[in-house]
Every structure is written in structure tokens, then in C-alpha cells.
Amino acid sequence: MPSIEEISDTLKLLSDKSRLTILALLKHKEMCVCDIVGILATTQPNVSQHLRKLKSGGLVRETRKSQWIYYALDVEDKPYLKPVIEQLPSMQMQIDAAKPQVCT
């Protein structure tokens, strides 16, 4: 059972629009930083900073594939977030409309 402090810290992470949008994207599929940058129309350092915070908060995990790192949701141990994640709007249209990015 999570403590009030753990839940509070997790919810603080979700209070940022960019981080919440990243979670909505990752609800659909795992993605690399360059894919997220293209959809959010922001900089790679900005997205990386948000992903670092989400990872340290235990909300995303990373997997290395060749030279790229892919991020995915990792909230199975946080059942109190399930209703929040389910209520996030679909980002499938934005994912489908995004031009495939070539990570550099």
C-alpha cells in the first residue's frame, strides 16, 4: 500500500502538462525521445528532462534497442493511477499524423 507521500509525489509529477501528455502518448505505445519531440513540438533536452523525472518517479521504464532508448509506461505497481491513465485523451491521431523521426 503506497503512502500518502508517495501518492502525493506521483500526482505532483502529473501536474505538468508536458509530462501528462507524454504519459498519454505512452499509453498507446513505447516511443523514443525523438518521436515525442516531434509530437510535442519542443526540444529534445526538454523532453529528456521530463522523461528523466517520470522515470525517477517510477512512471516510465526505458529499454535500449540498438543505440536508441525507448520509453514505456510502468505503472503496474501504482493501481491508484489506473483511473487517471484511462481518462487521458487518446493521442492516436497525433501519433498517426507525426512524421517518422530519424533520431540523431
Automatic annotation (TrEMBL):
Statement: the UniProt record of this protein carries the keyword Transcription regulation: yes
Domain HTH arsR-type residue range list: 1-96
UniProt cross-references to InterPro entries, sorted A to Z: ArsR-like_HTH, HTH_ArsR_DNA-bd_dom, HTH_MetalResp_TranReg, WH-like_DNA-bd_sf, WH_DNA-bd_sf
Signal peptide range in chain numbering: none
Pfam families: HTH_5
SMART domains noted in UniProt: HTH_ARSR (SM00418)
Protein origin, superkingdom: Bacteria
GO molecular function, one term: DNA binding
Keywords on record: DNA-binding, Transcription, Transcription regulation
Name this polypeptide is given: Metalloregulator ArsR/SmtB family transcription factor
Organism in which the protein naturally occurs: Cohnella ginsengisoli
